[in-house]
């Protein structure tokens, strides 16, 4: 089939790679490509966050985990399996709603008290961690090598008009779907991170206590990512310096070794949160929507790409 994919973030590129593997002829159209997408600003660890419906999210997360674990065997992919420690204020470990998405023995519950006094329990999770710039480039290279895909860097203002000249158009525009479709169920949830220098430090922590004032620490090859925020309904992408100070304070409380690290940068972006991920056909079955993945785009991308392929196959 001749397929157009609108959007070149993690959802759009993953969908394109899978469809190219199946032999479809593709055009990926986006206003921005890596390194200038919202996906490039993501902390990018496998961890279901602000995504519904739960039953489908568990299945898509499971499929994506498996695929990312394969990528982790290729050092060029920008994917690693890391030991992620999640701290909680619960008196005892409680099973996460998404735990069935994990391979067997991927999660270990610790019965000893964490080092910080405000936490009462924690667990360790073997999780895929991605470096967005590397991984998005890896996917782009895969598409170029497939010779099944070409790219157009331009803004789309009407999906119906763009759907002419192809068999199927796939809408992977993330929060851009708000304006394109006037989707009132799609809301922005602003996230902000602080980037520190890395001189050999290694740590993967999440504070799972307060969702709106979270703390997480992830280390990349050349930097340390500190987060974060989840400001529902905030539509600007401006960096709030006061919020950056709060993020630093929360993360230093979690790992005091960070206090001496120099700040490299700050980023803010909008998570495309929806009451349910929209992965369905339009009425005329020419446009297939695949957006609204919230804070879990890297966690769900491959599972959703498989579902897209199945829906196209059923179309005949």
Describe this structure as you would to a colleague.
With 316 residues, the protein is α/β, with parallel strands linked by helices. The protein has a single domain (2-315), classed as 3-Layer(aba) Sandwich (Rossmann fold). The protein has 7 helices and 14 strands. Strands 1, 2, 3, 4, 5, 6, 7, 8, 9, 10, 11, 12, 13 and 14 form a 14-stranded mixed sheet that branches. Helix 1 packs parallel to helix 3 and helix 1 packs across helix 7 (297-315). The radius of gyration is 19 Å and the shape is globular. The termini are close together.
The percent of residues in helical segments reads 25-40%
CATH class (first level) name = Alpha Beta
Structural class, by secondary structure, is alpha/beta
Number of helices: 7
CATH architecture: 3-Layer(aba) Sandwich
Mean pLDDT: 93
Q: Beta-sheet strand percentage?
A: 25-35%
Question: What is the total tally of β strands?
Answer: 14
| Global morphology | globular
Report the biggest beta sheet as strand number plus sense, adding barrel if it closes.
14 strands, mixed
Instruction: Calculate the terminal CA-CA distance, rounded to whole Å.
Output: 10 Å
Q: Rg to the nearest angstrom? A: 19 Å
Query: What is the CATH T-level topology?
Result: Rossmann fold
Looking at CATH, the homologous superfamily is NAD(P)-binding Rossmann-like Domain
Order of H and E elements: EHEHEEEHEHEHEEEEEHEEH
Number of domains: 1
pLDDT below 50 for ≥5 consecutive residues: which ranges? none
């Amino acid at each position: 089939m001749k397929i157009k994919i609108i959007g070149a973030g993690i959802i759009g590129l993953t969908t394109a790679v899978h469809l190219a593997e199946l032999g479809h002829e593709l055009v990926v159209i986006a206003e921005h490509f890596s390194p200038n997408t919202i996906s490039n600003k993501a902390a990018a660890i496998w961890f279901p966050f602000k995504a519904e419906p739960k039953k489908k999210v568990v299945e898509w997360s499971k499929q994506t985990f498996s695929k990312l674990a394969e990528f982790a065997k290729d050092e060029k992919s920008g994917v690693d399996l890391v030991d992620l420690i999640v701290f909680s204020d619960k008196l005892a470990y409680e099973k996460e709603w998404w735990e069935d998405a994990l391979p067997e023995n991927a999660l270990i519950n610790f019965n000893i008290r964490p080092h910080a006094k405000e936490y009462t329990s924690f667990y360790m999770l073997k999780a895929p961690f991605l470096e967005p710039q590397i991984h998005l480039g890896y996917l782009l290279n895969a598409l170029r090598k497939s010779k099944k895909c070409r790219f157009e860097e331009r803004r789309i203002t009407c999906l119906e008009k763009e759907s002419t000249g192809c068999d199927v158009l796939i809408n992977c525009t993330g929060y851009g779907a708000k304006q394109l479709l006037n989707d009132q169920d799609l809301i922005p949830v602003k996230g902000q991170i602080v980037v520190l220098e890395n001189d050999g430090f290694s740590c993967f922590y999440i504070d799972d206590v307060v969702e709106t004032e979270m703390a997480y620490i992830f280390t990349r090859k050349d930097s340390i990512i500190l987060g974060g925020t989840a400001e529902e309904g905030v539509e600007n992408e401006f960096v709030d310096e006061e919020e950056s100070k709060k993020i630093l304070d929360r993360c230093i409380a979690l790992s005091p070794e960070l206090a001496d690290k120099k700040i490299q940068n700050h980023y803010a972006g909008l998570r495309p949160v929806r009451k349910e991920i929209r992965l369905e056909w339009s009425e005329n079955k020419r446009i297939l929507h695949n957006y609204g993945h919230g804070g879990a785009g890297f966690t769900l991308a491959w599972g959703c790409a498989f579902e897209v392929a199945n829906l196209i196959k059923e179309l005949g």
